[in-house]
Amino acid sequence: MELSVLRFNVNGKDIHAANIDPETTLASYLRNHLGLTGTKLGCEEGACGACTVVIGAWDDRWKKARYSAVNACLLPLYMAHHCLVLTVEGIGSPKKIHPIQDRLARGHGTQCGFCSPGFVMSAYALLRTNPSPTIHEIDQAVKGNLCRCTGYRPILEALYSFGGKGCCNGLNSTACPCKENGGSVDQEKLITFDDFPKFDETQEILFPPSLIMEKSANDLYLEGPRVKLIVPVSWRAVDDLFRLNDDVTIVSSGQFTRLQTAQSPNQCATWVSVHNLPSMRAVETTETEVSIGAAISISEFVKTFEEYCDASVSVPIRKLFDKYSSMQAMNVASWVGGLLIGASEITSVFLAFNPKVAIRELGGAFTTARISDLIDEQGRMKLNRGAVIVGATFQRCEKHTRVFTFKQGLRPGADSTVVNCVGVFRVEHFIETARIAVSFGSNAVLSEKVSQRLRGK
Fold first, then answer.
1. What is the pTM of this model?
2. Residue 403's beta-bridge partner residues?
3. Is residue 68 domain-shared with residue 173, that is, in the same domain?
4. Residues 172 and 315 both lie in one domain
C-alpha cells in the first residue's frame, strides 16, 4: 500500500507532509519541522495545556468550520489531515498583537510566559465559537490550562473582559452573585479593559476552501518503526485488515492508545482509525430518540443532549461533564473511547440511561444490544474480534423524566473521579422507575437495590 501524504493548513499556509510516522504528534511537527515553538511542551500527557492549539475542521452536517482547542502534545498529526491549524504565532505578531494577547499582557497576566500561549489559544477557540461567552464558559474553556507562577487572578480578569457583561448566569453557585451585586463585577479589578481592542471574528483567518474540496475518497496509510496506521473510508477495508492481520487495534483519535503503548519498544501493531467513516459521525433524531455516532467527541456528545433533550436532562449532564476533563481532551476524545477504557463518567451515564448500542460485526452484520448487557462485572466491554460499536440510541426523555448527577474528584474540575453518581428517574406523582449508576474510582456499577428502594417514593 502506498504511503499517504498529509494535507493541512497552518496559520494560512498549505502543508503537505510526507513519510509521517503515525505516532508523530502535532506539537512535535509544529516545533521540529515548522519552527513554531510558541506551542510549548510541558507535561506531554494533556494535563497542563501549554501545548494548546486550535483546530478548524469542516462540518458537513452544519456546512461550516468548527474550531476547537486541542492538546497538540497528544493529538496525532494524522488527525489534522484536511484541517486548519492555528497557533499562537498565527493569530498575532509583533507588528499586530491579537486582542487576547494584548489584554493578557497589559493586564499583568503573564510572568514567565510559558503557559501564556496555551491560555491565549484556549480563549481564542472559545471566542471563534462564541464571541460573547459567560464567565462560566470562559472558566470551562481554560480549566485545562495550568499556571505555575503568575497566579490565576490577572489571567482570568483579562479573559473575563471578553465575556457578556461578566455574568456567571448563576452557574458558579446556587445564586448569581453578579446580579445580587447590582450586576457589577468591576470591584477591585487590577485593570479595566473598556478601551482595549475588541475581538473581531471578521479579522481572523478564514477556513481555506481548498481543504473542503481536497477531501479524499482513498484510505489514508502511514507507517512508522512501531506502528502501521490505516484510516479507511469504507467498512470493507476494515474487514480486510482484520482478515490479513492478527494484531489490529481499532482506535478513534488514538490518543489513549499512543500513551498506553509509548513505553513499549517494539509495538509492531496495526491501528485502524474509524473516526472518518460517515456512520461513526452521524447524529440522527426522531420524535422519541436521538442516535449518536461512536466517533463523536465527548464535547459534541454533551452538546447533542443540550440540542435535542429537555433541560431537566441536559443541564445535569453538562454539570457532570464540566468536572470530567479539560475542553482540549473532550474536544478530541470520542465517547466510545471513554466507554471502552472505563472512563467512569461515561460508563455511569450509559449504565443509568441504558441506551441501545449498534454494533457492526466482522463481515458486515449489524446487531443491537442494551449497554447493560455488554459491560461485565469489572466494567469491561464484551465484544467479538473485529466488532465495532457504531453508535448509541438514547430516549429523548419525556417531560416526567428527571436526571441527577454528582461527582467528587480530587479537585473541582478536570480531574479523576473519587466517586460519581448518575440517576435517571421517571417521576409523576411519585418515582415510577429509577436507574442509578455509581462509580468508585474508575469502576462504575448499576446500583439495582438502591434503584428498587426508590420506586414508589
1. 0.90
2. 424
3. yes
4. no
